[in-house]
Amino acid sequence: LGRPPEALPESGMEIPLQVLRTLAAAREAGLAEYILLTLGPLGALLAVPQLPTSPTLNCTQTFDMPNALQCAAGDIPPLELRIDALSIDGSQALWFHRQSALTSVRDVTGAGDALLAGTARAFADGWSLPEAVT
After folding, report:
1. Shortest CA distance to 26 belongs to which of 48, 57, 55, 51?
2. How far is Cα 71 from Cα 1, in angstroms, rounded to an integer?
3. How far apart are CA 81 and CA 95, in angstroms?
4. Cα 130 to chain center, whole Å?
5. How far apart are CA 83 and CA 93, in angstroms?
6. Are the CB atoms for 47 and 23 separated by under 8 Å?
7. Which of 35, 51, 60, 108 has its CA 20 to 30 A from that of 83?
8. Is 110 left (phi over 0), alpha (psi -120 to 50) or beta?
9. Over the chain, what HEC string results?
10. Sheet strand arrangement including 79-88
11. Rounded distance between C-alpha atoms, residue 119 and residue 99, angstroms
12. Which residues, 6+ apart, have CB-to-CB distance to 20 below 8 Å?
């Protein structure tokens, strides 16, 4: 984007305005129509050309893991995922995030890679990108 990197402010569980503006600038520069950005404990952002109309926006969804996964991996708590529609500088994004931080995490190695791989697979199977991220 032709500018030097900037340090991100400490923001708790909020997306720094700087990140949203950078995504908007990247879309405006023609980098890509959609941009998926993984943000570790803050979740993921999907920059989109237009916000979808969906009853699942701006509300929390709970996903119960199948019994087969619970048997294979031990206790897996339900995943409570919130999808918020964000708009900044004329650009839109969907923010996929947990309502609260996890109390214990075994290992986060590859979490972002797993999200990208699952999203790519679902998109290749014909899902829309917003659906594929969930």
Report:
1. 48
2. 47
3. 10
4. 9
5. 10
6. yes
7. 108
8. left
9. CCCCCCCCCCCCCCCCHHHHHHHHHHHHCCCCCCEEEECHHHCEEEEECCCCCCCCCCEEEEECCCHHHHHHHCCCCCEEEEEEEEEECCEEEEEEEECCCCCCCCCCCCHHHHHHHHHHHHHHCCCCHHHHHC
10. 35-38, 44-48, 91-98, 79-88, 59-63
11. 21
12. 45, 86, 88, 89, 91, 93
Rounded Cα distance, 42 and 111, in Å:
12
CA 103 vs. chain centroid, Å, equals: 20
Instruction: Report pLDDT for 31.
Output: 86
Other Cβ atoms closer than 10 A to 70:
13
Q: Is 20 exposed, middle or buried (0-12, 13-18, 19+ CB in 10 A)?
A: buried
Q: What does the block give as tokens for 49?
A: 């050309």
Tens of pLDDT, residue by residue over 62-88, are 766 655 565 666 666 667 788 888 887
Q: Tokens 């947990």 appear where?
A: 98
Report the distance separating Cα 39 and Cα 97, nearest Å: 9
pLDDT band at 122 (very low <50, low <70, confident <90, very high): very high
